[in-house]
Amino acid sequence: MNQNTTEPVAATETLAEVPEHVLRGLPEEVRLFPSAVDKTRIGVWATKPILKGKKFGPFVGDKKKRSQVKNNVYMWEVYYPNLGWMCIDATDPEKGNWLRYVNWACSGEEQNLFPLEINRAIYYKTLKPIAPGEELLVWYNGEDTASAWRPDAVHQRPRTSPGSIGRSKLRLQPSSRDHSSKSRHSGCSLTAPEVTWNQ
User: Positions of the region Disordered (predicted)?
Assistant: First the structure.
């Protein structure tokens, strides 16, 4: 093995690259700032208190077959009865909305959002109150959207739960969002960026 090789460095997202339509679509209680969980990414931060049970969405992106997706960091898979599994891909910021910038929690304990499928669209719902200065973070276990996501559940096909008949199932594919990877950063720090929250 060649020890002189280096892993490719992910390009760092900047606020200047965020499309205008994304900024205009931000709810009044959140703003985009650099993420605390992934220093190369933009994150979504609360600027006002957000109550438990608040729903955001839908997650917007191009609908594609899995084979057409080049990068699975910014996508969800949804089952359509007539089409099978389709990806909602927001890799291109011009095709997505602000939910594209919600990052993965480092653990289920840090999560404050969970994904929710309604009529084949993905929404994020708050699990607990979110205070100003907290980053919005999602987690998913592949079976129950109200539970914490587990890395070992990524490879399992979701089971249909009571009440989900006629609804699609979420499926998260392995991606760089998988914080179980040893190539990811060693620890998460949820330190808010230095900003004024009452904007």
Answer: 150-199
